[in-house]
Amino acid sequence: MISVDNLTVSFGGWDLFREVSFLINAKDRIGLVGKNGAGKSTMLKVLIGEQPPSSGTVSRNGDCTVGYLPQQMKVADTTTLFAETESAFSEVIGLEREIEQLNREIAERTDYESEGYEKLLHRLNDATDRFHILGGMNREEEVEKTLLGLGFQRSDFGRATSEFSGGWRMRIELAKLLLRRPSVFLLDEPTNHLDIESIGWLENYLKEYNGAVVLISHDRAFLDNVTTRTIEISLGKVYDYRVPYSRYVELRRERREQQMAAYVNQQKMIEQTEDFIERFRYKPTKSNQVQSRIKQLEKIERIEVDEEDLSRLNIKFPPAPRSGQIVVEAKDAGKSFGEKHVFSGATFTIERGQKIALVGRNGEGKTTFARMAIGQLEPTEGSVRIGHNVRIGYYAQNQDDLMNGDFTVFDTLDRVAVGDIRTRLRDILGAFLFRGEDIDKKVRVLSGGERARLAMARLMLEPYNLLVLDEPTNHMDMRSKDILKDAVRKYDGTVIVISHDREFLDGLVERVYEFRDGRVKEHLGGIYDFLRDRQIESMREIEQKAPVVTAEQKPKGPSGKAQYEQKREAEKQLRKAERDVEKAEQEIMALEKEIAEKDRQLADPAAHGIDLADGSFYAHYNELKDKLNKLTYRWEELSITLENLKETLAS
User: Fold this and answer.
1) Are residues 584 and 612 located together in one domain of the fold?
2) Which residues are bridge partners to 1 per DSSP?
3) Residue of 244, 218, 220 whose CA lies nearest to 231
């Protein structure tokens, strides 16, 4: 579909890429990876044609179309959400108008035998065929399904696009791009403005998409779930791995070890050769050998190894001063801004040492609650109380924007540090990858990731016992996120974290509070436990009839199609639920059989050579029974879901 041949891109005499070549095939799922500044975004711009190469070619086959989502873009704000998204079907809309015009002309004509009349009929036939090929009859349903999948509400459809924040306006552009269905998607950090549910929806969409996908992302779980091939950009070259991201990391480690060994051997040989030249340069009897060695050095293709800081950073938050057992207590708490209701009925307690996550769609109140918890906002309903001796460290979502751009990196910490900690500022900055001349850089020239690390470094300056972190991993690369996660995991205080990064939250939090539809719900367990429970709830929600979309929100269209799509989706969920119930029943039967065998052995331990004194038999026996209890509970949930789906389809 797209062929890159001997591509070179240079800036001011410096080669970003040097004679790189690769192919993008139909249905490829490619993750484009590399260090910040390696040229990933530039590569996408070259592929789309925005950045001309210095040499080499990028060619596409005749039918190939490309859809490109950059990290930043301007969004139109002169129409409604639905109308702006529907503009993705510009060709379909144009064909619809042409078909109407052709039908009018044909109705007015009476020269049925003329050549002109026959041309009109042919054109009408061609336009109608093209209209159906492009899915013209289903475009309203497609727009609706895509907008809902990306987190919009039906009540948003009639709102002006100018009313939406930057993150939501980026979703509008993503929706338009998905609906155009190009041959190849080029996506630069598509999950930056999405919540967990929308990311999951986008994952499924891209996995089932009929075209190719090339994406840049710092979301490891997203890369692993979508991609099957990884192209790494390093030192102006590309390395192609036919595996997802996590497997690529392993293979890259092996390649780097081989590369380092070859580099060390070459350096040793170069050093020995240079030493020979220096020792015998002025001896006439050795002149031939010296010249031979000089030519040998000139011909060597020097091995380059991408610089990598392999030192294990030991970032630790200061020990948390002891707080009261209750750190944050919410009782029927709620918040409204004027007529806009955000959420209500939040009742829960966060205790000392707990690490909890706040999740939900954007605009549902996660950041609002975080600001109530730290005292920046007052609830309009109920109460939010901070416990005894709670000292709060807050990382705001726009934390990097709150720093003075004219200060240097060092000044940013020095101006807020007090006491003995000031003697350790360079060590703290070094731990966050600011070394040497980096500490004298002005904040305004830092990248997004550097600003995020600097803001996090400021939290190290005081001993807090409650950390409230609002999207702390935005703009961070993989390694920085791993370092931060390790530090938060080892922190002995209480943590409230807002994040859509599943990989970051996995193994970090022990309970999840979901903000959804104006309410707050507690889910015990980690982030993947929550996502599994949420999927079950979503299946139950299928039985609820969708709210009616008003004429202002949605253009007129065939009413039966939406019902058909809804029924087809329900049938799909029904088949999945039947498989899940059947699988659970088989597992229960296998466990019951194993437990029955244990009961038989217990009846006569000696006959079966079992020593009950060591306790291992009972431990395994109890483990099986506990597993059976959990599986039975799971089967009950799945059975209820299945019955609900059957009732929905029957009604």
Assistant:
1) yes
2) none
3) 244
383 and 514 both lie in a single domain: yes
Tell me: do 476 and 502 sit in the same domain: yes
How many other CB atoms are found less than 10 A from the CB of residue 264? 12
Q: pLDDT digit string (tens) for 32-60?
A: 998 777 888 899 999 988 888 889 988 88
The token pair that represents 222 in the structure block:
């997203």
CB 484 within 8 A of CB 315: yes
Task: Read off the tokens for 599.
Answer: 């009961």
CA angle 134, 135, 137 (to 5 degrees): 135
Give the DSSP letter string of 186-215: EEESTTTT--HHHHHHHHHHHHH-SSEEEE
Containing domain of residue 629, as a range?
559-650
Say yes or no: 1 and 129 in one domain.
no
Tokens of 508: 């970090």
Please check whether residue 532 lies inside any domain of the structure: no
Is residue 441 in some structural domain? yes
CATH number at residue 22: 3.40.50.300
Please identify, among 167, 199, 232, the residue that sits at the C-terminal boundary of a domain. Answer: 167
Q: Which residues contact 442 (CB under 8 A, 6 or more apart)?
A: 405, 406, 407, 408
Domain count, the chain: 5
Q: Which helix (H) or strand (E) holds 7?
A: strand 2-11
- Cβ pair 489, 483 in contact under 8 A: no
Q: What is the DSSP letter of 152?
A: -
Is there a contact between 368 and 342 (Cβ–Cβ < 8 Å)? yes
Q: What is the pLDDT of residues 415-441, one digit of tens each?
A: 888 777 777 788 888 777 787 888 888
Burial class (CB in 10 A: 0-12, 13-18, 19+), 338: exposed
Q: How far apart are the first and last CA of the chain?
A: 47
- Mind spelling out the 3-state secondary structure of 67-128? EEECCCCCCCCCCEHHHHHHHHHHHHHHHHHHHHHHHHHHHHCCCCCCHHHHHHHHHHHHHH
Q: What is the pLDDT of residues 188-246, one digit of tens each?
A: 988 877 888 888 889 988 988 888 999 999 888 899 999 999 999 988 889 899 999 98
d(CA 327, CA 320): 13
Q: Are residues 634 and 498 in the same domain?
A: no
- 355 and 486 belong to one structural domain: yes
Same domain flag for 563 and 614: yes
The pairing of beta strand 184-188 with beta strand 212-216: parallel
Instruction: Please calculate the CA angle 572-576-582 and round it to the nearest 5 degrees.
Output: 145
Same domain? 501 vs 611: no
How far apart CA 469 and CA 192 sit, in angstroms, is: 17
State the Cα–Cα distance between residues 353 and 331, nearest whole angstrom: 20
Identify whether the C-beta of residue 216 lies closer than 8 Å to the C-beta of residue 187: yes
Residue (of 500, 619, 597) closest to 201 by Cα position: 500
* Pair 454, 431: CB distance under 8 Å: no
Q: 598 in a domain, yes or no?
A: yes
Report the DSSP pairing between strands 392-395 and 466-470: parallel
The answer to whether the beta carbons of residues 214 and 187 sit under 8 Å apart is: yes
Q: Could you give the 3-state DSSP secondary structure of residue 50?
A: coil
How far is it between the farthest Cα atoms of the chain?
106
Which among 511, 461, 508 has a CA at the least distance from the CA of 488? 508
